[in-house]
Prior knowledge:
alpha/beta
Amino acid sequence: TTTASVKDKLQEIQKNIKLPPVKFIREYHDHPDYIKALANSISQHWSENGRAEKLIFSFHGIPEKYVQQGDIYPEQCYGTVRGVVAVLGLKSGEYETTFQSRFGPTQWVKPYTDETLINWAKLGTKHVDVISPAFAADCLETLEELKITNRDLFFEHGGEKFDYISALNESDEHIELLRNLIEN
């Protein structure tokens, strides 16, 4: 929804102002450089902080009706996770793909990040790592919702250690990925 509205606005502006041609990079959810950068970010976090019992890949959610209308975003999210899991050699049960940031009365894509964290804590999981690959850079949503609000939920239900693994932000590998995407 964000991408489409940005493209629409740019096309509207281009009607009134002469701009150089613009090409959009449609997707890179499974690009090898992206997968490598995410896997390396997780590995670096583990080497510096230890590895949690479980890892959550938390993606921004969308209403379920969008998926029913053909939106492939959740499958792209799962594709990213499959790539990172393969590089890291994770086994089933060591990680989960979840979706955050739902609002309103409509059904959103599941499983929900907050509910997963609560359930894990209630079942005795004490330490989790959370990463949000859908965000190229940390923002209010990752820093407030994931790093603080969801951490507090996890602790309230019995969890003891919660580590948020930062977005790729300005890391060298992220900049290299973006450069490669633009040049190709």
